[in-house]
Structure formats: structure tokens, C-alpha cells
Amino acid sequence: MNSLRHRHRSVIGLSVLAALITVAGCSSADDGVSAAVPSPGAKVTGLCRNLDKMLPSKVDDLGRRDPEPASALTAGWGNPAIILRCGVVRPAKMNDPEADGVEVNGVGWLLQKEDDGSFRFTTTLRKAYVEVTIPKDRTGDGMAPLVDLAKSVEKAIPAGIAD
User: Fold this and answer.
1) Model pTM?
2) What average pLDDT does range 8-19 have in this prediction?
3) Of the candidates 72, 55, 74, 71, which has an alpha carbon nearest to the alpha carbon of residue 63?
4) Rounded CA separation 52/146 (Å)
5) Distance, CA of 112 to CA of 84 (rounded, Å)
6) What's the sign of the alpha-carbon dihedral 86, 87, 91, 97?
7) Left (φ > 0), alpha (ψ -120 to 50) or beta: where does 145 sit?
8) What is the DSSP string of 52-115?
9) Are 73 and 42 a contacting pair, CB within 8 Å?
10) Burial class (CB in 10 A: 0-12, 13-18, 19+), 98
11) Residue 138 — pLDDT band, cuts 50, 70, 90?
């Protein structure tokens, strides 16, 4: 009888644990963000994986909250999230001699204002294109996210022209 009671408690304990895991999983996914994962070649993927290891845990004082699906090619901070995608395709806007650009701590960025009020920055003159999207709710912070990311990008993604 004692072993039956112990087995019953174990089953209840496992059921409660499974329910808690399910609830925790749902609540984190419900407020999560998604980002398309780039699919660059092997060389760029290696650079991006290296960048992922060097990224700061905080950007603009926001904790890291990576988007779904999980990938070493994407990262995020805060909610609404600042999203980084590494290995993106070269933006066509880089062909425009009138395109806006900025340099932040030694890293050049193409600046694009999106229709929804967000900003997209894409690295220039690097062996891989790194894109950072700053949602419109965070654009008042100016270049602060790029300041926080520049050191990692400069170390992980060599200067040059992406293939």
C-alpha cells in the first residue's frame, strides 16, 4: 500500500511538473518575436556563429531575448525587440549613391527607414552583412543599439567586401 501511495504521488508530481513546463513554454512563446533566419554560405555562417558568441547580453540596457526559430544567425534584445540577423543578402539600396549611411565606432551602416517607422541598419564593407532592426518604439534611443553592437561586429566580421 505504501509503494502504491508513493507511485501515485510520483505520477501527480510528474503531471504537475509537465503542466508547469507547458504553461511556462506557452507564456514565453506568446510574447516572443520571430525573425527570418538567413541562409548564407558556409564561410559567412561561420563568421555569424562567431559573432553570436561575442554579442553582448544587453543592448541599450535591454536583456537578450532571441527570436524564434532559435538560430546562431539571429539575436534579439527587449520587447519590442531589437533584432539582429547575420548573413543577410546585400540590400539593393547599397547601389544607391544617395543612400544614407552612418559610422558607429568603426563600423559602417546603411540606414533605411521602414514604412512602419522602424529603422533597419545593415553593415557595409564587411565580409558578411549584418542587419539590425530597431522598432519604431525604440527609435528615440538613436544609435545606442549600434554603439553596443559595434565592438562585437568589428571583432567577428572582418572588414572587406562580402562575397
Assistant:
1) 0.80
2) 36
3) 55
4) 15
5) 15
6) positive
7) alpha
8) HHH--SEETTEEB-PPBSP-TTEEEETTTTEEEEESPPPPGGGG-TT-EEEEETTEEEEEEE-T
9) no
10) exposed
11) confident
Cα 48 from chain centroid?
11
Summarize pLDDT for 99-126 with one digit per residue, the tens. 999 999 999 999 999 999 999 999 999 9
d(CA 20, CA 44): 39
Strands lying side by side in the sheet with 119-124:
74-77, 82-86, 130-134, 119-124, 107-113, 100-104
Determine the residue type at 98: E
Distance (Å, whole) CA 34 – CA 66: 9
